[in-house]
Write a structure and sequence with these properties.
The chain has 263 residues and is of the alpha/beta class. It is built from four helices and 14 strands. The chain has a domain at 69-203: P-loop containing nucleotide triphosphate hydrolases (Rossmann fold, 3-Layer(aba) Sandwich). The chain binds zinc ion. Zinc ion binds at residues 206, 208, 210, 242-243, 245-246.
């Protein structure tokens, strides 16, 4: 339509030859692609993967699968308590709070005290066979649970700690002996070796230079004790960490007439 003045209106559309050429962007799979691809050829938007399984019974505030039950075991005098105190310090250095437990009947450093042979010591809550480990009974703001003398846990308590790690999302670090002076497992250690998500052997050496993995109980004359109660609290005066060769060295000798290995 021509206006009244007889002139054509100004055209604002650019001439086809004056349009800039389309920019070709690199596309990894196809080299270059045109700016506008039909929807069927476009790369689909990235989606977050869905969890394979989420129980409706688990609280959404927890992170199941993130926390673990750890068992760090060794023979005696390998530095387990020192490592526990170091782990607690590492958490607290980062502004996180921890809860410490030790066996109630282990009073070598005092009741409710975790002591290391290097001279460090620290107070801790105590557990006995009657203790029940539940998340609700612990402070809400702790980031980790550390347990010394974990060989004295009952198998049921280890089950509670395993549940606490995986249902409540609280990491649990247990430090303890694997076996007793007869070479038999403590019930709690056997359960820990079965359930723990991560096992770590802390190493120490025998007097002969080999790796010490056994605990030898000795009497006042330094002779090996073969029989007795599984639990007898004592330190360097009653126990030695030895290698298996030294553990069985005087097997054929009458203990009453055996020379003292550690006089
Ligand atoms: Zn040895």
């Amino acid at each position: 339509m021509v206006p009244d003045n007889g002139r054509a209106p100004p055209c604002h559309l650019p001439h086809p030859r004056s349009r800039p050429a389309p920019v070709l962007r690199p596309f990894p799979a196809f080299g270059f692609r045109a700016p506008c691809l039909p929807p069927a050829l476009r790369r689909p938007a990235r989606r977050r993967p869905l969890p394979l399984f989420r129980s409706p019974l688990l609280p959404r505030s927890s992170f199941p699968g993130m926390a673990k039950l750890y068992f760090r075991f060794a023979a005696m005098n390998a530095g387990k308590s020192t490592a526990l105190l170091q782990a607690a310090h590492n958490y607290e250095e980062r502004g996180m709070r921890v809860a410490l437990f030790t066996a109630a009947h282990d009073e070598r450093s005092g009741r409710g005290v975790i002591g290391s042979r290097l001279g460090l010591s620290r107070g801790a809550a105590t557990f006995g066979p009657e203790t029940r480990f539940e998340r609700a009974a612990l402070p809400a703001d702790i980031a980790c649970l550390l347990i010394d003398e974990a060989q004295f846990l009952t198998p049921e308590q280890v089950g509670q700690l395993h549940r606490m790690a995986h249902v409540d999302g609280l990491p649990v670090l247990c430090y303890g002996l694997r076996g007793d002076f007869r070479g038999e497992a403590f019930p709690g250690s056997a359960r820990l070796l079965t359930l723990a998500d991560e096992l770590e052997e802390m190493k120490t050496i025998c007097a002969c230079g080999r790796k010490a993995s056994m605990n030898m109980r000795i009497d006042e004359q330094g002779r090996r004790v073969l029989h007795g109660e599984q639990v007898l609290i004592g330190g360097n005066d009653r126990y030695r960490a030895v290698c298996p060769s030294c553990f069985y060295a005087d097997d054929g000798v009458d203990p009453a007439r055996a020379p003292g290995l550690f006089g």
